[in-house]
Amino acid sequence: MHSKLVTSVRSFMSYVLNSEGLMNTAMARCSLVILVAAISIEACNDQTTGPANVKPAGAVAPVNGVAPSASLFGSDAKFAQIATQIPGFGGLFYDSTGTPTAYLVDMTSAQTAQSVLLPLLADAKRAIVFRHGTYNFLELSNWKEALSPKVLAIPGVVFLDADEARNRVRIGVATLDAESKVTQLAALLGVPKEALIIETMSPASISTITVRDLNTPRAGGFQINWGTSAQYLCTIGPNAYFAGDTTKAYGVVNSHCTNVQGQIDGTNYYQPLQSTPFSFIGTEMADPIYWVGGQCPSGQRCRTSDAALFKYAVANPPIYQVGYIARTTSSDGSIFMNTSTPRFKITKTGNWPWTGLLVFKVGRTTGWTVGLVTSTCVDTPQYENGRPTGITMLCSDYVFSPSNPGDSGSPVFTLDSSNNATLEGILWGNDGNGDFIMSPVQNIKNELGNLVFNAP
Predict the structure, then answer these.
(1) In the prediction, which pLDDT does 101 show?
(2) Which domain holds residue 81?
(3) Domain check: are 364 and 279 in the same one?
(4) What is the pLDDT of residue 66?
(5) What CATH number has the domain bearing residue 391?
(6) Do 147 and 284 sit in the same domain of this protein?
(7) 277 pLDDT exceeds 60?
(8) Which of 50, 44, 49 is closest to 31 using CA atoms?
(9) DSSP string, 37-90
(10) Beta strand pairing status for 320-326 and 343-349?
């Protein structure tokens, strides 16, 4: 049907995938950078037996009845030692303008603080700006130590920090349930509510995390498990709101990634697998009936999009992200998450792609790939395991790019010079000749409703 175009596409793709730029994205590196300017602290080694080459703060005199713990490490140990010299010292940091800044509970200690802190700076001639703090660092570090054994054992807790830049104990959580348990535990241990900052965010990831693993918040391109078997794997399409209502979020999936195509049957969805703790994400709520007659071939049932909708079980983030697609390390089929920029942002919604358009897709099986649209608005009977299903998809588009089982539902999109995405559709199959097949986004909206896919 398009042999000449496929030949030119192969030549073009051979060029793009070996050229510099977007198609040759460098592998992301995962690193932890601790910014404490010129304060002398020792690095912590990444190991399972505990930090090496780092000495605890040691026994020092208590301040206002609060003594530093002997088991502190790194910058926490250094700040605890400083707090024994400066009454009410709450932490030292550089603000957004690069100005050295310190918290003091007692502002009358400013002169003492200047003399103690200035020698620690790279530029000892710079004056330190002091802010009124609520807590001295000994309190923060001791609360952190008291919380650490139990709070870090709560599923969904991302990190725990005695935050010198905010003068609070800061705790990152990935789920609402984790936030609730952290709040209860802190109260039980006597940590003042006012001393806590609890923030929702994604867990820290290293480069071995893939689109097939647990990822929060959930976005297009991640693996989902549906139905009653762990073998039923597909890919989350783009998340969306209905126009005028941002209180409820929905995920687009293929209609064939439901228990029964063309029928609302209450299919449950999990990310990445049913066996993963806290993996349930939502339940099917829309899957239009396949129709007969008219343009539909005799003996067939038809629709213009292989798309269904599930409703997220949690009304608010962080379980989901509307307007984002998972970004892996490169467009050569990588499934490994780009830890520095883990998402593409959807800023526009396309209409109907045209032949020759360069598009991308992210799927759980073949990852992030790129290809050219080779045919548009093609009427295509569906087959499963070599047998006709009795369903014909009307007006689908073909893209010369790899796909395999499990990629069903993959978001298909273009990218601008800023790597912002325009959503073009979702993948539903392949033709066995190197093309995947997609339902255009406008066909999805025509059948599922006035969905908004752009990031808020």
Answers:
(1) 87
(2) 74-129
(3) yes
(4) 52
(5) 2.40.10.120
(6) no
(7) yes
(8) 44
(9) TT---PPPP--SS--SS---------BTTB---TT--HHHHHHHHHHHHSTTEE
(10) antiparallel
Q: If we measure between CA atoms, which residue out of 140, 197, 149 comes closest to residue 171?
A: 197
Over residues 40-48, mean pLDDT: 25
Higher pLDDT, 407 or 149: 407
Q: Taking Cα atoms as reference points, which of 25, 22, 27 lies closest to residue 421? A: 22
**Which residue's entry shows tokens 């990588």?**
334
Whether residue 235 contacts residue 409, with contact meaning beta carbons closer than 8 Å, is answered with yes
pLDDT digits (tens, 9 = 90+) for 168-207: 998 888 888 989 999 999 999 999 999 999 988 766 534 4
The 10s digit of each residue's pLDDT in 177-188 is 989 999 999 999
Residue matched to tokens 């190197």: 434
Task: State whether the Cα torsion 319-323-325-330 is positive or negative.
Answer: negative
Please identify, among 150, 173, 200, the residue that sits at the C-terminal boundary of a domain. Answer: 200
Q: Which residue has the tokens 């467009």?
A: 331
Tell whether 97 and 228 lie within a shared domain.
no
3-state percent breakdown (helix, strand, coil) of the chain, nearest 5 = 20, 35, 45
